[in-house]
Amino acid sequence: MRNQAEFLIELLTRLNSTGLRYMLTGSMASNYWGIPRTTHDVDVVVALEPHQADRLIQAFQSGFFIQPESVRSAFRPPFHFNVLDEHSVLKADFWLLQNTPFDQAAFDRRVQISLFGVSAWIAAAEDVILHKLYWNRLTPSDRQFEDAAGVWLVQAERLDQAYLHHWAIRLGVQEVLVEILAGKRRPKIT
Questions:
Q1: Residue 189 scores a pLDDT above 80
Q2: Cα distance between residue 128 and residue 106, in whole Å
Q3: Which of 46, 113, 133, 152 has the smallest number of CB atoms closer than 10 Å to its CB?
Q4: pTM of the predicted model, to two decimals?
């Protein structure tokens, strides 16, 4: 049975071998920048063109369950497919990079780091906060708020405040961002 660290190492190694541009997002990114919490999924945004689909499919043929037709259909809404680890209950959700101003800006700001000794591209801390608040607006969840607040709590002094406010206004999350910055919304710390 593969544990989460082993799963992430294998996932990143295979992703890196494709030469495709990607970034980790979601809870894995908020765990990196903020206060960690248990999560079993990995969210990945990938800049994938239709002619590159087979390259990604091939990278996950052995040891993972990947449906080639799901990858090929991801170029239509909801622009999503997943990869399941055959050695655990873990999965990776892949989201195709969208051509919206925020998605493009966030992808351009991704940061290269090392996770468990493997090179990885991850969303910048500011973009994790904004993305969590935006998703909370679409599907309300205390977890989204807590993840965003956790990143703020850990990274506050290093965050680009102007960037945060600029996009918070455009994404319609300015009010909740202000609550987090003022300490009115705090993460659970156990």
A1: no
A2: 9
A3: 113
A4: 0.93
